[in-house]
């Protein structure tokens, strides 16, 4: 089992197994897999699907299909075959022996992309952990290939330890070390989260299929609310960025909220990745509102369902979700969708103001109108009202300032002594 670095010159054949599972379209899944391969410069030269009622233990596909793949490899000069589902070490070993090219699966490909794109310390650690969790159960079929993965020297052998036992001990030690480092980062983020909860700053998370336009929407909302020139990277590429970006946004005379641009989703996301990215994905779990961003020119029900599935898998299905379709400048009516949506344009600003109003209506739906009488010597409270709430009126009386404002009940209770 050889895990050399993926290179631009690779020519790949994609292989999928259609088990007739509801909500899983294997043709679309292979289209997505092709996009993932293209993201690291691999050229896809063929796609092969086998319809079957079962997974074959020896090769994942049937032996007849293996012969078909072998012929395609020879004719098309393929250098690798990529399978759309996780393969066992034995399956990879058997396939490599039969096809004589590198065999990888979707999980390995996604992990390779993440490893290439990770920039921050947190993302690098999370990807490293995911890769090691992926390799751990596959050690038995790897032979000496682990040594080609890098990552420092091995510990000294214990009495009677085999190479496999040594490799496993090394991996387990690395996994423990990385988890410790990530737990420290998570603790810091949890401290910040508790501070936000204390100050009651709601979190709005942008979620969606990778490359759906989440970063573009963050830039649009930033410009509309903050006139912000510090833009988030926008690139027509799967997983262009893995690092979450958070911005504090605020509408005039309204309280602020935190907008989080999260990592994009794909179908069949490796469970190692979900487990490793616990710190990053916690931004979704802590959100008060999820904005589900969908490409308006391609509102694919498969992509929409993929995002819903990942949200459910993360345990975030109880968080309010708002469906937003981008590229509204084309004014192309999307096909029938089973839920309400808002069509917007990041290019022209179409319906961005309406989206902002909808966001505030959702995250601050507990706001009510209250009237307070503030003494003249409490100017800081007046400033607090102007900065954090929508002030409806200010009337200057002989013995104080009458303030009518919209604010949540828990904030009203903090000012109960001035409430009329």
TrEMBL record:
UniProt binding sites for GTP: 208-215, 239-243, 261-264, 345-347
Domain named Hflx-type G: residues: 202-295
Entry keyword Magnesium: yes
Any single Pfam family the record assigns to this protein: GTP-bdg_N
Coiled-coil parts of chain: none
Taxonomy, superkingdom: Bacteria
Keyword terms: Cytoplasm, GTP-binding, Magnesium, Metal-binding, Nucleotide-binding
Keyword Nucleotide-binding: yes
Compartments (UniProt record): Cytoplasm
InterPro entries per record: G_HFLX_dom (IPR030394), GTP-bd (IPR006073), GTP-bd_M (IPR032305), GTPase_HflX (IPR016496), GTPase_HflX_N (IPR025121), GTPase_HflX_N_sf (IPR042108), P-loop_NTPase (IPR027417)
Positions with a binding annotation for Mg(2+): 215, 241
Subunit description: Monomer. Associates with the 50S ribosomal subunit.
Family listed: Belongs to the TRAFAC class OBG-HflX-like GTPase superfamily. HflX GTPase family.
Function recorded in the entry: GTPase that associates with the 50S ribosomal subunit and may have a role during protein synthesis or ribosome biogenesis.
Entry protein name: GTPase HflX
Taxonomic lineage from the root: Bacteria, Bacillati, Mycoplasmatota, Mollicutes, Acholeplasmatales
Gene: hflX
């Amino acid at each position: 089992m050889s895990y050399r670095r993926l290179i631009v010159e690779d020519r790949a054949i994609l292989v999928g197994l259609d088990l007739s599972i509801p909500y899983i379209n294997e043709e679309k899944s292979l289209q997505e897999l092709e996009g993932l391969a293209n993201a690291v410069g691999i050229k896809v030269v063929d796609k092969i699907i086998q319809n079957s009622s079962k997974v074959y233990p020896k090769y994942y596909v049937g032996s007849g299909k293996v012969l078909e793949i072998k012929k395609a490899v020879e004719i098309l000069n393929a250098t690798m075959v990529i399978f759309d589902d996780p393969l066992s070490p034995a399956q990879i070993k058997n396939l490599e022996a039969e096809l004589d090219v590198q065999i990888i699966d979707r999980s390995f490909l996604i992990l390779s992309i993440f490893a290439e794109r990770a920039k921050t310390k947190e993302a690098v650690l999370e990807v490293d952990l995911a890769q090691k969790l992926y390799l751990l159960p596959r050690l038995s079929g790897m032979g000496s290939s682990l040594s080609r993965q890098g990552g420092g020297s091995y510990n000294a052998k214990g009495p009677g330890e085999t190479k496999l036992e040594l490799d496993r001990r090394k991996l387990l030690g690395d996994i423990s070390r990385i988890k410790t480092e990530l737990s420290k980062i998570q603790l810091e983020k949890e401290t910040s989260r508790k501070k936000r909860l204390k100050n009651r700053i709601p979190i709005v998370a942008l979620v969606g299929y990778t490359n759906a336009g989440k970063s573009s929407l963050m830039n649009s909302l930033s410009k509309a609310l903050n006139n912000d020139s510090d833009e988030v990277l926008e690139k027509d590429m799967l997983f262009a960025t893995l690092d979450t970006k958070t911005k504090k946004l605020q509408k005039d005379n309204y309280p602020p909220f935190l907008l989080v641009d999260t990592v994009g989703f794909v179908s069949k996301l490796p469970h190692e990745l979900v487990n490793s990215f616990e710190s990053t994905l916690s931004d979704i779990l802590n959100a008060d509102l999820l904005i589900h961003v969908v490409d308006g020119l391609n509102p694919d029900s498969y992509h929409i369902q993929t995002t819903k599935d990942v949200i459910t898998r993360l345990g975030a299905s109880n968080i309010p979700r708002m469906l937003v379709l981008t590229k509204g400048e084309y004014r192309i009516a999307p096909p029938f969708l089973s839920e309400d949506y808002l069509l917007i344009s990041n290019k022209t600003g179409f319906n961005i103001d309406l989206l902002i109003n909808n966001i505030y209506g959702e995250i601050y739906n507990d706001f009510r109108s209250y009237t307070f009488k503030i003494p003249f010597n409490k100017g800081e409270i007046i400033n607090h009202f102007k900065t954090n709430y929508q002030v409806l009126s200010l009337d200057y009386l002989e013995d104080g300032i009458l303030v009518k404002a919209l604010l949540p009940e828990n904030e009203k209770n903090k000012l109960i002594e001035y409430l009329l």
